[in-house]
Amino acid sequence: MAAGPRRIAIAGSTGSIGTQALDVVRTSPSGLEVVALGAFSSVDLLVDQAREFRPPVVALADSSRAAELRERVPEGTEVRAGPEALASLAETGAETVLNAVVGFAGLGVTIRTLELGKRLALANKESLIAGAPVVQRARRTPGAEILPVDSEHCAIHQCLRAAGSAASVRRIVLTASGGPFRGRKAEDLREVTISEALAHPTWSMGPKITIDSSTLMNKGLEVLEANELFGVGIDSIEVVVHPQSIVHSMVEFSDGATIAQLSHPDMRLPISYCLMYPDRGEHPYGAMDWAAVSSLEFEPPDLHTFGCLPLAFEAARVGGAAPAWLNAANEVAVAAFLAGGIGWSQIADVVAEALAVFEPVELRSIEDVLEADARARVVAEEALTRLS
Ligand SMILES: NC(=O)c1ccc[n+]([C@@H]2O[C@H](COP(=O)([O-])OP(=O)(O)OC[C@H]3O[C@@H](n4cnc5c(N)ncnc54)[C@H](OP(=O)(O)O)[C@@H]3O)[C@@H](O)[C@H]2O)c1
Prior knowledge:
The chain is of the alpha/beta class. It has three domains: 143 residues, Rossmann fold (3-Layer(aba) Sandwich); 153 residues, no CATH class; 69 residues, Rna Polymerase Sigma Factor, Chain: A. 42% of the residues lie in helices and 15% in strands. The strands form two sheets. Strands 4-3-2-1-5-6-7 form a seven-stranded parallel sheet, with helices on both faces. A four-stranded mixed sheet has the order 9-8-10-11, with helices on one face. The site of NADP nicotinamide-adenine-dinucleotide phosphate (NAP) has 28 residues, from helix 1, helix 5 and helix 9. NADP nicotinamide-adenine-dinucleotide phosphate binds next to helix 1, helix 5 and helix 9.
């Protein structure tokens, strides 16, 4: 065990991952110390968190509410505000920064943490996917390290660690619950409502990732994430549907052996793994109750009904800025679906239309990534107008 508590910062502390991370801290008060918290605009919850955990620094991306935050946090708390405020949480005493921001907005936190040579507990897969070449360069900073919070990638991290080497990996198999529409056909899904798409069978998550799970775009983003994290090549990454969400992913080795990680679905386990690494947390989140498991099922994904998944493989094969385009178009389409502007099946149509006119550019800097993201959003908005 480390000498003192591990000092952590949480960007996106008011969301689903952020609040679960604070639950992990509650069960391990001597193992973890919160030195910074940050959110977009949820002042009430951030104030409650600041009063409970007493971090020296809190941050709010939406500066219009900073004055209110300053008035309500405990005396002596430093308040940072504005577009750079969350990324600046890496510039505190934190050893590990948990990036629990949703969407492309998490890019700054990812880059700044890695450039400072710190450990990044990464829930925000979108930043790694969209900014891949720039993030990979930052990841080579001495001391920098990414630990994946996504349960599938955390499972793979654990499988590789158990094996002791990544040298003889034959394939990585990402499991997918299949979401609320598993087994349904494209024709049945044209009229689904927002609340049906938000009703995930096994995980309770924020709205954006829940919609991504219903379209299997979340699995597509995870394929891209695995491609960046583990470097085995896109043709060595597969997806299998596993409705029970107990096998969180697996690695097959050259001799045919497969190592998997199993637990009942509870995001606090991968969060705890990343925050306590290289030690193990002491609370058994999601520990298996074997008497309660009657079967573990596996089936291939339906690539026709869930068109977002093959689009993600396509973006991975094109490489460069294509994953950034896929991610941006998806964010535009999901926001439009949640606002009632398009139907569920049109999410994949918007992404496909954007990728069809993809403009290749080299991503050498954050500015290049921001430009590619902005351009893809314009193209996706045009596709939206045509479709709606
Ligand atoms: N939820 C899960 O179980 C789960 C599992 C695996 C991976 N992930 C990944 O974890 C990330 C977070 O997901 P989530 O489900 O926790 O999302 P969420 O519940 O929607 O929370 C998002 C967090 O990000 C903040 N935020 C939103 N927009 C922002 C912006 N423009 N700039 C800065 N901060 C912003 C929010 O602050 P406010 O509250 O102030 O808006 C909130 O703290 C995503 O990348 C997701 O794919 C989530």
